[in-house]
Amino acid sequence: MERQAEVATLSEITSPPVLSGVYEYAFPAIRGIQAGRVYFVSMCPLKLLPKMFVWDNDDLPVELRAQRLLNKGRIPEIVRYIEENATSYTFSAITASVDASVRFVPAQAAEANSGLGTLRIPMDGRFIVVDGQHRRAAIEQVLRSNPELGDETIAVVFFLDKGLQHCQQMFADLNRHAVRPSPSIGVLYDHRDPLAAVTRTVAAQSPILRGFVEQASTSLAKASRKMFTLSAVHGAHKALFAGVTTLGQPQMIDAAMGMWEALNRQFPEWGMIRAKQVHAPEIRRDFIHTHGIVLTALGRICNTLLLDDVPVKWWSQELAPLSHLDWSRTNTALWEGRALVGGTVTKASSNIVLTTALLRAHLGMPLSPEEQKAEANREAQA
After folding, report:
1. Which of 114, 143, 176 represents a domain boundary (last residue)?
2. Whether pLDDT at 358 is above 70
3. Best exposed site among 46, 102, 150, 235 by fewest CB in 10 Å?
4. Claim to verify: residue 208 and residue 350 sit in the same structural domain
């Protein structure tokens, strides 16, 4: 019965009645059927988005809205993305629910079953953004300072409004299977971020890393022969170059390559893996120095050397005391509460700070104010 009702709806909106005195929006559109329901795909100029598409009143209780509250903290990031990439930004389609008696006029020159035509929507109709409200809000903000983008277009998918429950279900379904790509894939595919380019180059060219970096996943399978994930290497590079603004990309690559060479001399197990004397899973299981938290902490240590203008060729000597530490996971007296919590490696921000503090103290380096505070809190809780 429901599909029969949908077919009837499709028949009604395909046969355009004569509407005298009705003002309409006219969208060139393609008509389709999904789950027995008619929908339309069109293009909308960016300058019309703020005027036509709305979201539910944020003052309404959550159960009476068609989508989540607008998170205004996300908007500046999207605005910055558009402004910095005005000639290369990419947006997926906006999904909207239309509360109006729409009609679809097939194109005369189109083939009978092509679905091409014009979607006509009364101007007093109501558009509710079911998916894409943050994109819409960011576009509205960008147009204030860059109005020439207003003539560019974004795809819009129109569904017919069948009530609040239907709109809420659409929102739930559209977000049900949304999965963010892994951070490693993000680094691998990001060609805008200069630091991501440095990480990809170093991972491909460093004798220490080449062939031993997992580039797709953020975690390593137990049987993986890789030593590190790309996201962990990138995290170490972010720590290494924090606050560094004077280096160009070639100099950053040289510094990163030097860091990995200096670190490699402190951890003989890394060389044993490359020489196939031991298997990577065994080292990852028994030691913590291949894990992301330690790599980030080591990146922070090397960041101090970089900011202090210590030549990279001397870093190995500066880091030499690290080779005397017991990096085994069973050394809970040293690592528990820092790199380990309950015997499990963790990368919480507080644990990174405490791990870095321990390494600095072992190297005879002064602790940062953040690390001093973390150590004081740790002692107070002991």
Report:
1. 176
2. yes
3. 150
4. yes
The encoded tokens of residue 292 equal 């992301």
The rounded distance, in Å, linking the Cα atoms of 89 and 44 is 16
Domain span at 228:
183-381
pLDDT tens-place string over residues 310-326: 999 999 999 999 999 99
How do residues 217-255 score in pLDDT, each as one tens digit? 888 999 999 999 999 999 999 999 999 999 999 999 999
Q: Supply the pTM of this predicted model.
A: 0.74
- Residues with Cβ within 8 Å of residue 357, at least 6 apart in sequence: 367, 371, 372, 374, 375
37 and 123 inside one domain: yes
* 245 CB-side CA count, 13 A: 1
Please list the residues that pair with 53 across neighbouring strands.
127
Lookup result for tokens 């970089």 = 306
Which H or E element spans position 118?
Answer: strand 116-122
> Residue 321: which residues within 8 A CB-CB, separation 6 or more?
362, 363, 364
For residues 343 and 285, the answer to whether their CB atoms sit within 8 Å is: no
Closest to 107 measured CA to CA, from 27, 161, 53: 27
- The vertex-260 CA angle with 182 and 262, nearest 5°, equals 155
